[in-house]
Amino acid sequence: MPKLWESTVDQHRHTVHAAILDATAALVAEHGMAVNMSQIAAQVGIGRATLYKYFPDVQSIVIAWHDRQVTAHLDQLAGIAAQDRNPGERLRTVLATYLHLSSTGTHAGHGHHADGASPAQATQLALTLHRAAHMPPAHQRLHELVTEAIAGAADAGIVRTDAPPAELATYCLHALAAAAALPSPDSRERLLDMTWAGLLPPG
Question: CA-CA distances (angstroms) from residue 2 to 9, 12, 80?
Fold first, then answer.
């Protein structure tokens, strides 16, 4: 196969793959997990047979969409963590960005919920995504990013050194994960301030 043709085919597959993920996320946001493969195929503008060449079922599409979202968010955090700036400012920006991502969610239909989903469907969706194979390495990468940012700030004398950076990273991630349950930007900003205060040297 000529390279140009091969490149064109690969690009087409990538475009269709992305369209399937986007269409599924939109349908799940509207209808919950009651969506079926025929609806997705119609939304994308492809046949069901073509859709099955990409994914075996709706659940696998939702997981692939979530994997894409999580990866994009981790890449965003990694970009911030790699910036050449004051270690304290860099750490604060990493935490603030994670707080924002936690409050907006990475799940179809915003957070674990979809507008058209019943509580049982929302719970099913949350469990499906939580148990997905991409989540453990994603959590590990997130923890490493925050640990490295804390270590840099500790070396600069900005945050406490009486606990290892890895423990402080666990503290921060668990504290800021509560942002999804907070009702307003002001409350989330207070959470960030309280989390940051816990990182500062005693006294």
Answer: 11, 15, 40
> What CATH number did the domain enclosing 153 receive?
1.10.357.10
The total number of structural domains in the chain stands at: 1
- Give the structural domain span for 48: 3-199
Q: What is the pLDDT of residues 1-56, one digit of tens each?
A: 455 555 688 898 999 999 999 999 999 888 888 899 999 999 999 999 999 999 99
C-beta neighbour count of 29 within 10 angstroms: 18
Q: Name the pLDDT band for 109 (thresholds 50, 70, 90).
A: very low
Of 123, 137, 155, the residue nearest 70 (C-alpha): 137
Task: Supply the DSSP symbol for 2.
Answer: -
- Residue 18 token pair: 């992305």
